[in-house]
From TrEMBL:
The lineage of its organism: Bacteria, Bacillati, Bacillota, Clostridia, Lachnospirales. Keywords: Coiled coil. Residues 353-394 form a coiled coil. Pfam families: DUF4317. It comes from the Bacteria. This is DUF4317 domain-containing protein.
Length: 442
């Protein structure tokens, strides 16, 4: 069955559209004993019960095809007298009214369903008047066939959580009575399948809530079909094989596994572009596996080991490529790659900024050095100016100030002439003097 066919049936499981004619069930305890059995017309159920049972039936057709919902085929021997497909056919044809046949089927479920706790077996009977549909999916008011089918739901029954509550008779708060509560179905199936919008008695649609650990034993022993791995199981098995071969303790294994999934995702996208939705999905056979592993630079020796392990694990049913891809991990990896790219850009910008800062610091150093030189020169000039100012001040305190060459200073001497103190400066013929800026010829 495909997604459209599942949705076509599921849309009918609403209050205004549901047409279940009968509902039967059997409550089984943890000792695999039948505690009680019941049955009756579905439409006569009380409103609260009606909605709860309808909700359970909805769950059996919920989830993802290939993961929660698996298409199973009956082998030919199961379609012979005494086969498990024949028991289902007899149940459907009896319209769930044969108590002996129902007891036989309940016993079959109890013997083949591996469950430690209490559980409830439910069987729904329905008939769907399938309308002719045009190519553009428009219904024509003309019936093609009446699709008569059963839904089976196996629901866990557990004790409600302990807690306090109001005890009305005693008018006090106390420990409330714990009830046995029916939960959402863990396992179920639709029979016959609704393939190509028609009855297919050779197939059944199997439902599992737990995609990591489905009740595979019930597929084999309860329905008589071969075990079909869920997408989650395929992914877990493939990843485990790759990790073991590449080295589970190797830090690079996770990155390599992400690379493999990324390449697989791109190959699956390329396949989808050239194929219709109704075509077979992209299978991870040896050829595809060799290509994707080679593109990820996995050695020939390890490729051979991975192929051998995958073939042993999956047999003649190689995994669907889309099922071994962890979309959440790829999405997280895309974020990681973007983050690394941003961190790299930040690193480059930081390096560039540091270089600019270094250049600015170098320029600042040159400017500072120039400033220091200017300050030093200014200081020298100020010192000179101070000397000049001091000298000028000193000049103003003397009546006579002489400026002579150093070698002339030793020739100057004091002498009293005509009773007056005189400074005698010997002058040679080639020497002259300036007095207060006026040249004097002697």
């Amino acid at each position: 069955m495909n997604k459209k066919e599942v949705l076509e049936l599921k849309r009918r499981l609403k209050k205004d559209q549901a047409t279940f004619s009968r509902l039967v069930g059997c409550y089984v305890d943890c000792n695999h004993e039948k505690v009680c059995k019941f049955g009756g017309k579905f439409l006569t159920l009380e409103e609260d019960e009606y909605y709860k049972y309808l909700e359970i039936s909805n769950k059996v057709l919920s989830g993802t095809l290939g993961n929660n919902l698996l298409n199973l085929q009956f082998p030919l021997e199961e379609e012979e007298v005494g086969g498990r497909q024949q028991i289902l056919m007899a149940l459907r044809d009896s319209e769930l009214n044969d108590e002996t046949l129902l007891d036989t089927y309940y016993d079959l479920v109890i013997d083949t369903y591996d469950e430690a706790g209490n559980y409830l077996i439910l069987l729904y009977l329905d008939s769907y008047d399938v309308m002719t549909r045009t190519k553009d999916n428009i219904n024509v008011d003309e019936s093609e066939e009446v699709y008569k089918y059963m839904l089976c739901a196996i629901c866990p029954v557990t004790l409600s959580k302990p807690g306090l509550g109001y005890l009305e008779k005693e008018q006090r708060i106390g420990a409330r009575i714990r009830d046995w509560v029916v939960g959402a179905p863990e396992t179920g199936f639709l029979f016959p399948a609704f393939n190509d919008r028609s009855t297919d008695i050779h197939s059944t649609l199997f439902y599992t809530k737990n995609t990591k650990e489905p009740h595979s034993e019930f597929m084999t022993n309860g329905l008589g079909c071969g075990v079909e791995r869920t997408a989650t199981e395929q992914k877990m098995a493939f990843h485990s094989i790759v990790r073991n071969v590449l080295g589970a303790e190797d830090e690079s294994t996770d990155d390599k596994l992400l690379d493999i999934q990324q390449n697989l995702s791109e190959m699956a996208d390329d396949y989808a572009e050239t194929h219709d939705d109704d075509d077979d999905p992209f299978i991870l056979d040896n050829e595809a596996m060799n290509k994707v592993l080679s593109d990820c630079h996995v050695s020939e020796e390890k490729i051979s080991r991975i192929e051998k392990s995958v073939n042993e694990a999956f047999g003649d049913k190689p995994p669907i490529a889309a099922n071994v891809i962890d979309s959440k991990a790829l999405a997280a990896n895309e974020i990681r790659v973007e983050k690394l790219a941003l961190e790299s850009q930040v690193g480059d910008l930081t390096l560039e900024l540091n270089e600019k800062n270094a250049q600015l610091e170098e320029k600042d150093s040159v400017i500072q050095e120039k400033n220091n030189q200017i300050e030093e020169r200014t200081s020298q000039l100020l010192e000179k100016q101070e000397e000049i100012d001091n000298y000028t001040a000193q000049i103003k305190t003397y009546d006579v100030v002489l400026h002579v060459k150093p070698e002339k200073a030793s020739q100057i001497h004091a002498q009293v002439i005509n009773g007056e103190k005189c400074l005698v400066i010997p002058m040679r013929e080639n020497e002259n003097a300036t007095i207060n800026g006026v040249n004097t010829n002697l």
